[in-house]
Structures are given as C-alpha cells and as structure tokens.
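Lecture notes, continued. The same structure-token format from the folding unit now serves as the input rather than the output. Read the line below as a description of shape only.
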C-alpha cells in the first residue's frame, strides 16, 4: 500500500502539529495521479482556448467564458458523482481538470 498523508480538509483523523490542530486524510498514489493528469489536461485546454478565442475588447471575455463553462462543468460533475467523491473519475475531472481549467488568477491578471 503506497498511501501517504496530506493536509486537507476532509476529517479522517485529528493530529496536532507544532501545537496546531491539523486535519489529515490518507490518499494513495492513484488519487494523486488522477488529479495531476486531470490538472495537466485542464491547464493545456485553458491555454489552447485562450490562444484560439479572439479578443474583441480590453475586457477578458475569453477567460470569463472559460471560467463560467468550467464552473458549470464542475457543478454537473458534483451533482452526478456526489455519492463517491473519492472516485478517480471525479478526482481527475473535477479537482484536476476543472480546477486547472478555471483559474481566477488568469482572470485577475487580464483585468
């Protein structure tokens, strides 16, 4: 078993690190790989669409469109896969792809 602990919010076990309470969840390498692969595809897709979509004004409509579309996709994924949030498909598509595809930082830089 190649599981390791990461500091994230779902409560599995409470630990104290340097006097602070930390929430630890055990994840495995398949989950991390799913998120990384989805993130790579999401970031490359965002970059490709930014390059392809035309800009008409100084307002970054292309980034706003990407963020709205990605947020809607994430909402649909959560609705469809809510029973198993640790499902590799949900981790790859929801956390990885949609997380990298919709970045507020891209929108902020463009404004």
């Amino acid at each position: 078993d190649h599981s390791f602990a990461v500091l994230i919010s779902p409560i599995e076990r409470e630990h104290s690190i340097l006097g602070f309470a930390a929430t630890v969840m055990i994840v495995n390498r398949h989950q991390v790989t799913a998120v990384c692969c989805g993130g790579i595809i999401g970031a490359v897709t965002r970059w490709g669409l930014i390059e392809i979509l035309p800009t008409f004004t100084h307002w970054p409509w292309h980034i706003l469109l990407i963020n709205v579309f990605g947020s809607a996709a994430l909402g649909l994924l959560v609705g469809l896969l809510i029973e198993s949030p640790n499902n590799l498909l949900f981790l790859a598509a929801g956390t990885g792809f949609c997380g990298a595809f919709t970045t507020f930082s891209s929108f902020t830089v463009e404004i």
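Point for the exam: Helices lie at 29-52, 61-80, 88-101, 104-110.
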